[in-house]
Amino acid sequence: MAPHAEDCEEVERINREEYQAVPVHQGRRILPVEASSAQAWIENEDLNPGPDSRSNSPGENRRLLGRKAEKSGLQSGLTLGVWKQSKCSLSKTVIKPQAKTKFQKRKEILIQALRPPYFIISIIIFTAALHLCGPREWRAWLEWAPGAWWQEPWRLITYGCVHAGTAHLAINALVALAVGWRLEREQGWARVAILWSGGLVAGALGTGALQPRVHVVGASAAVYALLTAHLPNVCLRFGHIPLWWFRPLSVVVLGASEVWWAVVRAGGGTSDSGYHVAWAAHALGAASGLPLGFLIFNGENSGDRRIVWCKILSMCAVAVAVTSATIHFTYWYDADHYS
User: Fold this and answer.
1) Range of lowest pLDDT (109-118, 282-291, 307-316)
2) Which terms in the GO cellular component ontology are assigned (predicted)?
């Protein structure tokens, strides 16, 4: 049985008076805590039940209406909440980092390749400033002298900071940049500095043993140590460095030119600046670069068995060289005779 018209009008009036807007927070509806108007009709109906409340009571339709509206509001709130969550999760899965283009990759490789070798450039600037602005007394105090180095051991390294002339300085600087640029970028300035110092010491001791009367200036021994150190660098990082085949080729070409130059100038007296060509410093500097490179440098192939054997052999070679130099300069070298 349908409800009376007066009762329907009263229901609509109460619903309008007690209606409140449902608040929304971040895409989710917050349902009101207080009882709605339909629940109020349910309570009134329970307090004053009619004679036939099961079938033809107006409260039955009102209860059905209230429950339907309450269910509808709950569903709509849940629907909005689920849609907001799925939208956020979808955005997280769809957004991906943009892949680099070929131009960007080439740009990064070019920037990495053009990064300057700070140690090599610092040595060149210091040597050029000392050559152009330093007094001549410093040259005699820093060069390798046959007898003076025994009481002044700093000459084992400082002779690489003075040169015979501007052309000598320019050639050493250009070759040092050419052979040391990639080497410092791949192995770091600290390892290159140790190799540089080791090449100078080996060149000085080799000259003292093979050319004991020659005064030595210039960083040629260190430059040749950098040159031959490319061979162990290629072995240690084979497959991970560009133009690996060009480096052994450059070692062969420059080594052959050095041998030819030594043969041409052998026995030719002094140069225009009054200095002999210290071929022993060049040869011993180049010979020291190979074992020192295996002992100092690091690479992706360091754990390979052949590289480990090369390291062991290099350690033995350095030990034999140090022992031989100690015995020679302790028992056979007469410092007073060459001073």
Assistant:
1) 109-118
2) membrane
